[in-house]
Design goal:
The chain is built from 3 helices and 17 strands. By secondary structure, the protein is mainly beta. It folds into 2 domains: 117 residues, Sandwich (Immunoglobulin-like); 147 residues, Immunoglobulin-like (Sandwich), CATH 2.60.40. Strands 2, 4, 6, 8, 12, 13, 14, 15 and 17 form a 9-stranded mixed sheet that branches. It has a 4-stranded antiparallel sheet with strand order 1-3-7-5, with no helix packed on it. Strands 9-10-11-16 form a 4-stranded antiparallel sheet, with no helix packed on it. The longest helix has 18 residues.
Length: 313
């Protein structure tokens, strides 16, 4: 009986050791490669810091606003021209707020080392003019915070390349088919890659979509300046354009083959757009390989807050 009991205990210990191996390997793999971080459909998220400003202010108080900037995507923000602007109020009542905006601090995006992104703040300080001098007792203001920044999307998917799609005497490991993609940690996403194969050539249709809820506009410093509510506004030919920075297939750039492009930009209609690119294939065997699409663009998010200013006299 004791021998049987000892054998059962030994077996249980061995089973426990074996079943504990797999979770340990998974933990080691996560530590080595890190969690998937190119997820989500936002870039920056804005929020007013609580009670800055409070919902009710007297005209004898200083006006202070602090806006939290949280980077929820996978690209670092805070480069030249990335700003937050505060507008929407009478500047003869709330004075001293710079029309040049406040620079967005360098706010890192998500990565294998920072899987949640980073948070920072921007501050605006001003003064409130006496309301009695304007013969009013109160002034309801709607504050408008506008964030303008450059962002980037990197989308990668495995596709099947078949140099001889009509051959029937070759055993193939894959068949060319469209690939749907999820979010890529950015407000503009590649949501579908279609592939059409012919002998010696693969044609890709790359679908792009604005998924972030804000406004997308052409990439570049000039367009970031136009994003300001105090400057010449972005025109019809500035908004809803995404720069196709590059497309790589099997380690080769096929960007020169892509069309139709407007100064390297894809036009979005109803928030969506597409581009066609070609890849010259070699050999006979079908194989899988990554396609990597890089997009660059300007992006604008807005945020409102109601504030009431009351005369103290």
């Amino acid at each position: 009986m004791r021998k049987n009991l000892f054998a059962m205990i030994t077996l249980l210990l061995l089973l426990s050791a074996c079943t504990g191996t797999l979770p340990g390997q998974q933990r080691k793999s996560q530590q080595l490669y890190g969690p998937e971080y190119r997820t989500g459909s936002e870039g920056l998220r804005l929020s007013f810091v609580q009670n800055l400003p409070p919902a009710r202010l007297f005209d004898t108080e200083q006006f202070t606003t602090m806006i939290q900037v949280e980077n929820l995507g996978a690209f670092t923000v805070g480069g030249p021209g990335d700003k937050v602007y505060l507008s929407g109020f009478d500047q003869t009542i709330i004075t001293g707020i710079s029309q040049w905006g406040a620079d967005i601090p360098v706010t890192e995006g998500k990565s294998q080392f920072v899987p949640t992104g980073t948070v920072d703040t921007v501050e605006f300080k001003g003064m409130i003019a006496p309301l009695r001098a304007k013969n009013i007792d109160k002034y309801p203001a709607k504050l408008l915070a506008t964030a303008c920044y450059a962002y980037e999307t990197v989308a990668t998917a495995n596709v099947c390349i078949d140099p001889s799609p009509y051959a029937t005497n070759i055993r193939k490991i894959c068949t060319p088919a469209s690939v749907s993609l999820s979010s890529q940690g950015a407000p503009v996403a590649v949501n579908l890659v279609e592939i059409d194969s012919s002998p010696g050539r693969a044609r890709f249709k790359i679908h792009v979509k604005n998924v972030g809820g804000g406004d997308v506009f052409r990439y570049g410093a000039d367009y970031l300046m136009k994003c300001s509510p105090f400057s010449q506004p972005l025109s019809f030919n500035d908004i809803d354009y995404v720069e196709l920075a590059d497309v790589y297939v099997s380690g080769t750039s096929i960007k020169p083959t892509c069309k139709p492009l407007d100064d390297n930009h894809i036009r979005l209609t109803g928030g969506s757009g597409s581009a066609f690119c070609e890849f010259m294939t070699r050999g006979q065997d079908a194989y899988t390989t990554p396609i990597t699409v890089t997009l660059r663009y300007g992006y604008r998010n807005i945020l409102f807050k109601d504030v009431q200013i009351v005369s103290s006299y």
